[in-house]
Amino acid sequence: MNYYEAYYQWHSPAIGRPFEMLVFGHAGQPVILFPTSKGSYYENKDRGMIESAGWFLENGKVRIYCPDSIDALSWYNKSVEPAVRAYNHTCYDKLILNEVVSRALEDTGYSRVATAGCSFGGYHAVNFAFRHPQVTGYCFSMSGAFNIRQFMDGYYDENVYFNSPVDFIPEDQDGDLWRLGIVLGTADQDICKPDNEWLSGILHKKNINHWLDIRPHANHDWPVWKEMFPHYLSLLNHTS
Q: What is the model's pLDDT at position 1?
């Protein structure tokens, strides 16, 4: 497959350290594709997710941005207090909004991005999309889990609340939420299937349109995600 690829590194003001990202495709709808738990910016390339979207990249339908994660410094960082873990993630959220999404919109001329990710990347996709629906048009979660309290050892504050989708979405009345194109992808043998059914129930109660896509004869793994991703990209409107 033949498509544009670029590597970026810069000093991030939000986290106060260098940050890395890969970008694929020469034009099209910007898609922020998050890595899995503690994953790197090159994970989705190495695992074949980018290749699965090859037709969309070659034909200028999408431009995919693959940022690094800082999960090892935030939710998974047992060496610091839970309050620090949650705060560190708020810094990552600012990074994605002000340094990744803003660049993607400027690069492509679009007014909204799509977010996507597998496993913990699905959490990131949902959390960012619902926190920032004014700059997000679509959200494609593949086997995500959405209760961040599991990482907090019983601690709870505003940073936890506003980064735990099953907590803040029920109360959120931002009108842009009802304009999102939402897919919650999971599988019948997926360990995260209950989480997706839980979030789907919350969205139903709010009359937020979405698709709970439960794939048969599949589990929590890359083969089903590589089937889901191009399918979900085909749902994009491709208008700014």
A: 76
